[in-house]
Structure formats: structure tokens, C-alpha cells
Amino acid sequence: MQNVVILGSTGSIGVSTLDVLARHPERYRVFALVARQRIDRLLEQICTFRPTYVVVTEAEPAETLRNRIRDMRIACEVLTGADALAAVVSAPEVDIVMAAIVGAAGLMPTLAAAKAGKKILLANKEALVMSGALFLNAVKDGGAQLLPIDSEHNAIFQCWSANAIGQAPSVAGVEKIQLTASGGPFLRKPLSELNEVTPDQACSHPTWNMGRKISVDSATLMNKGLEVIEACHLFGASAEQVDVVIHPQSIVHSMVRYLDGSVLAQMGNPDMRTPIAHALAWPERIQSGVAPLDLTQMSALQFEVVDRERFPCLTLAYQALQAGGTAAAVLNAANEVAVDAFLNNRLRFTAISDVIAATLAKVSAPTIGSLAELLAIDAEARLIAATQIQLRAA
Ligand SMILES: NC(=O)C1=CN([C@@H]2O[C@H](COP(=O)(O)OP(=O)(O)OC[C@H]3O[C@@H](n4cnc5c(N)ncnc54)[C@H](OP(=O)(O)O)[C@@H]3O)[C@@H](O)[C@H]2O)C=CC1
Ligand SMILES: CC(=O)[C@@H](O)[C@H](O)COP(=O)(O)O
Ligand SMILES: [Mn+2]
């Protein structure tokens, strides 16, 4: 029996993870659930999965939940605060940590899991993008195991020759990693109309059902930009070795092209329970609940070149990657602030990329020395991005 902690249990990935775990009660037990504020959903999860602990990062909802659990006489301890979060993730009973908090907020608990040598299922791409080598060194030093949940990276992992896992592309015979991008809800929208799109339109993803922040990232293609950086870190690739191709159907989840001309692709219906089940059980295979793929029942699969004028965020991500140092952390911080402003009707969709470009130009991005330095640069980038948003509101 393996004990699992889910960081971000109330979100899209958290719910899919619990769905897979529920199919395998003989293999997995939920040790702890972590969320920020969605108490009603968390309470339902507690009733179903009976974790030993829950951590609610906001103090007021934590107190509300504590009272409700006491009234219902459920044996589950409700904790709050950063120390409690790190302690739960690092507890000796814990085998697996699903890192599915959205954004930079997920960095500290995921780092704690790395230092404690856990098996980490990494959905939270922002943590890796912002901290890069610092996080990978913590994984190595802590003796942790890192498995990708992001559908493209899980696909690449599955397409990497089994006997070359852990080797850099040049050693593994890999020529190119090709990430597929759906193109999001605005792939065919006239460019002149992008200025007026609403948060709900941006969050109506054509193929995946996801949280609001990553949905907006898909609509700008910043999601793919973050994924290019994520792929470089996870697979030891250079920016030149990672390409993006538009594939509106989201059936091919990514491809690996080898030196001998072979291209390996991983396919499946767009449902995150497949990569979750894959990483949970790897190197074994378990049921995920995902319907089998029937290619005879689908329309043609399309592949297209990315229109860089429509999607300037992808170019910004490649620029940050080439710049090196903490530029990717600045990119990520500015994007988080700009997307939040867009979702709260304080910024136009088309201005998201302007705010990120202006922030990248204003914040110097030296190579990371320490976690404290990284957090300082993240905070500085957020302040500059907020100023840029105010300038555009004026
Ligand atoms: N959804 C998907 O299909 C995919 C997601 N990912 C990545 O996985 C991560 C999660 O995405 P998704 O599930 O869609 O996001 P959601 O917005 O659906 O869920 C986010 C989760 O994080 C919790 N959370 C948010 N802020 C904090 C905080 N400050 N402290 C603690 N918990 C917090 C939320 O709690 P609460 O609900 O209480 O607010 C919720 O449980 C992202 O990094 C995303 O990029 C990657 C690939 C696919
Ligand atoms: C499911 C998943 O991994 C998302 O990151 C997905 O990739 C979003 O779709 P697009 O970014 O391709 O629109
Ligand atoms: Mn993805």
C-alpha cells in the first residue's frame, strides 16, 4: 500500500487523481489533501477518502472546515500554515506526492517533497519553470523520483526509449522533441477580435477541461511556452531541440523524433487520468477509467505551423529560455500576474503579452544563487508587472 499526498486536491488535476486512486484501493491510500479555500469540495473528498490530514493554506476556511469536521465526528486533522504543509509532504509514511497546486504557490511544498526523497508526480509546471536547476538539484540531492504529469511531457517520457530514460537527447539518439498544442479557443478567431475576448471565452478550451489559469495560458500559447522550458529541464534538451506544432484535436500528445528517422508519438483521448495513472504506477500499467481511443471514429488529425503573430507569448518564452538565468522566473511571474488581471477584468487579453514583454525588459535576471534570491526576483517581477497593468488601465 502506498500513501499519497495531493497538493491541490480540489482542482482539475486533484479531482482526476482521486478518480484514479479510487479505482485502486488495494494499491493507494490518501494520506493528506491540500487546498486553499474550496471547503465544500474538500469536505466531500474527506468523507470519501478519509485522509489522516488535510492542509488548508488560508486560515479562515481552515477554521470553518475544522468546525464542520468536528460536528460530523470525522477523524481527520485540519492543519494550516507553510510549516504544516512541509511537514505533511515530508512525513515518513508518505510515498507519493502529486504536485498540482497552480502557479508559484506550489514551489515550496514541491521542493519539500524533493528534499524528503518522495516520488513526485509533477503537474505544477510553473514551479519547475521558475526554479529550474535549483529544483532538479533538490530532487537529485534528496533522492526523489520525478515523473511528468503534464500530458506532453508524460507523452515524451513514454516515447523515450525505455533503456535511455535519464539520458540527454544526444546520448539517447533523439533529434527533436515535438510538443503538440491545441491552439486553444482562439486558433481561428480573426486577430482583430482578440482584443475583446472575455475570461469565460478564453477558458472554454476546445479539448481539455482544466482550471482557469492554465486555460488562459492555453489560449495565449504561454502554456506551450512554459512547456518548452519544462521539456528542456526534464529531458536535458536545448531550446533548439524543442519544437511546437499545432494539433487541434489533442489526440497526439507529443512526439519524439530520433536520428534514424523514427518518430514516436503517444496518443489517447484528451483526459488527464491517462498520464496520472501512468505516472502513479510506472513502470507498471493500471486502469485509468479513460475510454479507449478509436481512430476509425474520428475526423482527420491535423498538424500546422504556429502563427507567431497570433501567439506572441510563445516567442517570449523562447526568448526567456535563450536569455537563461532567472529570465524564465520573471516570465512566469509576469504571466501569473497578467493572467490574474485578465481573469478579473483588469487587463485585455491582447495586453497579457505586452505586460510580460515589458516586465522581461525591466527586470534583470541573473543566474540563480539561492532560493532566497529566486523568491526576491519573483517578487520584483510581480511588482513590475502590476505597475505595467496599472499603466495600461490608465
Ligand atoms: N488541468 C489540467 O489538465 C492540467 C494542469 N496542469 C498543471 O497542474 C496545475 C494545476 O492545474 P489545475 O488543476 O487545472 O488548476 P485548478 O485551478 O483547477 O486547481 C488548482 C488547485 O490548487 C489549489 N491552490 C491554488 N492556490 C493555492 C495556494 N496558494 N496554496 C495551496 N493551494 C492552492 C486550489 O485550491 P482551491 O480549489 O481550494 O482554491 C486547487 O486545489 C497547474 O500548474 C497546471 O499548469 C498541467 C497539465 C494539465
Ligand atoms: C492537458 C495538458 O497537458 C495541458 O497543458 C494541455 O496541453 C493544454 O492544451 P494546449 O496548451 O495544447 O491548448
Ligand atoms: Mn500540457
UniProtKB/TrEMBL annotation:
One of its GO terms (molecular function) is isomerase activity. It holds the Pfam family DXP_reductoisom. It is an enzyme of class 1 (oxidoreductase). GO terms for biological process: isopentenyl diphosphate biosynthetic process, methylerythritol 4-phosphate pathway involved in terpenoid biosynthetic process. It comes from the Bacteria. SUPFAM superfamilies: 1-deoxy-D-xylulose-5-phosphate reductoisomerase, C-terminal domain, Glyceraldehyde-3-phosphate dehydrogenase-like, C-terminal domain, NAD(P)-binding Rossmann-fold domains. Residues 4-132 form the 1-deoxy-D-xylulose 5-phosphate reductoisomerase N-terminal domain. Signal peptide: none annotated. It catalyses: 2-C-methyl-D-erythritol 4-phosphate + NADP(+) = 1-deoxy-D-xylulose 5-phosphate + NADPH + H(+). Its cofactor is Mg(2+); Mn(2+). NADPH binds at residues 10-13, 124, 126, 211. Its EC number is 1.1.1.267. Residues 267-382 form the DXP reductoisomerase C-terminal domain. 1-deoxy-D-xylulose 5-phosphate binds at residues 125, 151-152, 182, 205, 218, 223-224, 227. The keyword NADP applies. Pathway: Isoprenoid biosynthesis; isopentenyl diphosphate biosynthesis via DXP pathway; isopentenyl diphosphate from 1-deoxy-D-xylulose 5-phosphate: step 1/6. Residues 146-235 form the 1-deoxy-D-xylulose 5-phosphate reductoisomerase C-terminal domain. Catalyzes the NADPH-dependent rearrangement and reduction of 1-deoxy-D-xylulose-5-phosphate (DXP) to 2-C-methyl-D-erythritol 4-phosphate (MEP). NCBIfam families: Dxr, PRK05447.1-1, PRK12464.1. This is 1-deoxy-D-xylulose 5-phosphate reductoisomerase. It comes from Permianibacter aggregans. The lineage of its organism: Bacteria, Pseudomonadati, Pseudomonadota, Gammaproteobacteria, Pseudomonadales. The gene is dxr.
